[in-house]
Amino acid sequence: MPSPVWHPYAHLKTQAAAPRVVGGRGTRFTLDTGESLLDATCSWWCMIHGYGHPRLVDAIKQQADTLCHVMLGGLTHDPADQLARELVRLTPDGLEHVFFSDSGSVGMEVAMKMAVQYHHLRGHSGKRRMLSLMKAYHGDTAGCMAVCDPEEGMHSLFAGYLPEHHFAPAPKAPYGATAQQVEADLAALRSVLEQHHHEIAALLMEPLLQAAGGLNMTSPHYLRGARALCDEFDVLLVFDEVATGFGRTGKMFAADHADITPDIMVLSKGLTGGYLGHAATLATTRVHNTFIGDSQLHAFMHGPTFMGNPLACRVALESLRVFEEEDYLGKISHLNAILTRELAGDDSLRQHPAVADVRVLGATGVIEVYDASSLAHAADIARSRGVWLRSFGRWLYTMPAYITSDEEMRQIIDAMKAPFLDAA
Ligand SMILES: Cc1ncc(COP(=O)(O)O)c(C=O)c1O
Question: Are 79 and 276 in contact (CB under 8 A)?
């Protein structure tokens, strides 16, 4: 009998049988067939330490012996308290309050609700809509679907069910653009704000790297410009660092490239090193203190059952320790050098007629093609070379674990290039 497991994003008629994973160590996982695969995307970008990291596994075991779970409603515990303090220490100055939840999508829901209530409590109850960017992806819950790219995103079928928000064009200037080169992108953002700021509570963005909506990269100048526009129009700036956080763009957080502080920042994925689902929505004191008041409406009415789960907080603390003690930012910069030289720097790949662009940021490398059909066999070709790689749409990308060795990074890059070499 086929498995009753319903797989995500799968076309039920054409989906291939899912390989069965029986274990994982380091950068690789093993299938029940004995096949060992090098994971080029570290399980949707969250397993930043790879699989079976002894320190992370021990942290979970030790915590499990003490306290697996307790509600955060009216109670607290050391792992939640310590993790919140660590996140305040590591994130940009000014983010001083931490609201935990269980996934990136819920972390974003919390951010949006917080933004609307913040304005309501300040007497601006007309500010109930979000401003998001084309090519955005913020998650699959209803609130998040409504702020994903409404045309090319995967949720267009739900138009009519979802609330309507405002969208600005996705930024076009690349990472290395000058301040002058981002002016057109910022002018487009300004134009939406000028027209609709009276009803906009927050500008949401995946800073520097719009991930699942097409791996679009932009410049730190764009982030600085967005910060200034939000201040001018009394709109909160929300950074969704679910994918970019914890080193993916080459600094601890994408916000660090621009030296700015958003009003609200959402973290998940790498937060626990991928070992348990969890998220944190951080807010500045200005946002937080707006919720201090006498009316019943001042309470923030949100409380996922598993928020602040001790196992998740404890493994997140260990993940951060390993990250700092083992100089992960140094490892990421090393991976970046290999990707820059051997992927982005490969002229024959860039000049291949099927290839529209090759770009790299931090530990992220992307090949964008003109037509998705050019990537039809990319995953199979990679697998035949021992690499687990999945393309989506017109993008073939790697976001490897930060412990990936030089040799493994080359194996991944070769697997990414293979569809173009084989076809040449
Ligand atoms: C930028 C961004 N935000 C939010 C999410 C949603 O996170 P989750 O899948 O944990 O709900 C994702 C997931 O890929 C993401 O990339």
Answer: no
Instruction: State which of 324, 359, 388 marks the end of a domain.
Output: 324
CA gap 163, 384 in Å, rounded:
44
Measure the CA–CA gap between 116 and 227, rounded to whole angstroms: 18
DSSP 141-186: SHHHHTTS-TTTSTTGGGTTTSPP-EEEPPP-S-TT--TGGGHHHH
Could you list the residue range(s) of the whole structural domain that residue 355 is in? 327-423
Rounded Cα distance, 220 and 256, in Å: 9
For residue 99, the cross-strand partners are 281
Asked whether residue 278 falls in the same domain as residue 336, the answer is no
Q: Do residue 100 and residue 140 come from a single domain?
A: yes
Beta-bridge partners for 204: 238
Distance 202 CA to ligand 1 centre (A): 18
- Which residues fall within 8 angstroms of residue 159, CB to CB, at 6 or more apart? 150
Statement to judge: residues 154 and 285 lie in one domain: yes
Closest C-alpha among 358, 353, 366, 362 to residue 397? 366
Q: How far apart are CA 410 and CA 20, in angstroms?
A: 26
Mutate to test the pocket of ligand 1, among 46, 138, 205, 392 (most ligand atoms within 8 A of CB): 138
Instruction: From first to last of the 424 residues of the chain, give the pLDDT tens digit.
Output: 888 999 999 999 988 899 999 999 999 999 999 999 999 999 999 999 999 999 999 999 999 999 999 999 999 999 999 999 999 999 999 999 999 999 999 999 999 999 999 999 999 999 999 999 999 999 999 999 999 998 877 778 898 999 999 999 999 999 999 999 999 999 999 999 999 999 999 999 999 999 999 999 999 999 999 999 999 999 999 999 999 999 999 999 999 999 999 999 999 999 999 999 999 999 999 999 999 999 999 999 999 999 999 999 999 999 999 999 999 999 999 999 999 999 999 999 999 999 999 999 999 999 999 999 999 999 999 999 999 999 999 999 999 999 999 999 999 999 999 999 855 4
Whether the pTM exceeds 0.85: the reply is: yes
Burial label for 157, CB within 10 Å (0-12, 13-18, 19+), is exposed
**Residue with CA at minimum distance from ligand 1 atom 8:** 104
Q: How many structural domains does the chain have?
A: 2
Q: Which CATH number goes with the domain that contains 167?
A: 3.40.640.10
Ligand 1: lining residues by beta carbon, under 6 Å: 103-105, 108, 137-139, 206, 211-212, 240, 242-243, 268
> Is position 132 within any domain?
yes
